[in-house]
Write the structure tokens for this entry.
Amino acid sequence: MTALLALAVLGTLALGAVFAVAMDGRIAQLAAGFARQRIETEAPDRLNRDLAAVWYLALAAAGLSVVPFAPGLALIDSPVGIVIWGTCEALTIITVFLHGWSSNAPFPLIGAYRYVAIGLPVMLPSMFVLIAAALPAESLSLPAIVESQRGMWNVIRQPLGLPLFAIVVLTLTLRGPMDFADAADIATGTSAEESGAARGLWEIARAAMLVSASALAATLFLGGPLGPVLPGPVWLWIKTAALMAIFAWLGRRVARTTPSRMLTILWIVLLPLSFLHLAMAGVFAL
Amino acid sequence: MRLSRLASRAPAPVFGAIGPGWQVAVERLLARSGLRRALTPRDAGILLVAGDMPGDAAEALGRVHDQLPHPRATLRWTVSHETADAVADRIVASWRDLGAIDEADLLPDQPPNEWKGVGPHGQGGKGMMGGTPYGRPMAMTGEDIRDGLQLDRYTARIGPFAPMLPPGLVLEVTLQGDVIVAATVQHPPFAQPVDADAPELCAARMLTILGLDGPARRAIHGRRPGGIWVRGAVPRGLGGIEGAGDARDRLAAFLGGDRAAVTAPDLSELLPGLEWSEAMLVMASLPPSAILRAARLPEAA
């Protein structure tokens, strides 16, 4: 059973990443990238440069491993599943930073520092959203959170949860309005000095993280594998794919403001909103 | 084999090195389907050199050329009777056949100064701050212009083909973090035709900085750009100029199809105090003719 679940995690990650790249219309572009030379900058931090994308992929896989594919059935059935996911979120910030740091050039470094400044205040609402989702289940385990949604999905009883989590997903996957690491004004930031396979691998890792974060959002808010007729994994895939499409659409459509203004919005509007969300979830759970 | 066939269907990634008078033609060209405007030379396979480059830009052009990963090709578009269709066809043909073309470096691939130091990565030695050890300028602490604390200052020259700045403009900026504390114009932007001030092109430049590539493309094609929270994303009061509103007002004017008549203050006064991303948004909100007038060389100012 464990082998089957491991296969499900890897298969979901691989097929989901292909789906994510296809949604961006970048399959051919990605294939073209792998045929090209990888550029070497002067005195790069080679270890971290090579590890950043791999690390990013590994975090996506680790995050997905706690998601239940059928009621009560996750590869890592941890009593503290959402804490493991939260760790993956926090380490993603460090990974993106290392990606920008390692090429030893100004624009990537600006992107790296900018992302850390934005990532920190995004993590705070994220933690409150995760805790709020755990309240009705009275457990930090994801299978228990799924069970708690048999009567009613969290997306209905915690209406602010999914919109707040969407901001977290866009940040973790470097998309659109939250892509402060790889922005146009710094010539694609942390990726500015990367070409060829390195650029392609980073793209794949971003896509994999979108799969993982969307699957988690489906589990937290849409009842994960719960649903009539079809088997659990199929419901999870349908819900994950739908959320991926929404996040990709938001990423393409919503404008990105300046980092300093986004910081103000995060600390002054979204953080208090996530407090309110947690309080509402608590009152509802009582 | 199948991978290479798939790869050849990808839109051709083009880095545009734009010369005097060619900004409009290149911006419209690179918004076509089948072509993709690369935001860094590292992401491009084709270097498009449009127009006659002045001699003082030759070295910079060589550096940009050498930054493209192999295989790569340079295409020149210097005669105005060659249509955009013809150039687009040439680009796509070169992209499909890039492996057979490939070009060697134009400049010697050597660091301008030897890289040496004490540690295994060339780090260390005496005097870690300031000065130019081994020919490399090092950051030195200076007063932060916002709170008076001490923070590293780093000076760099950006341009003349930086994709986020007008073609030809070379800025020497001193940054603390990503806050510009000083900016001087080393080379003014190349003169462009009045069409470069067209509202749809100005709007597209701002939309690109706002991360909206699709809407920017649609704006250039004269369609409704779409996009959510477009005006709202530009902070109120940013880049406010007497008589021309702020950057948000100018974006609203561009999106409404109006040309903005702007008399911008000198760039060395306009940019300091802004964060890099704010500064690039302000620059994109100025029509090229206004930037040309505002980019006075230090000795002329």
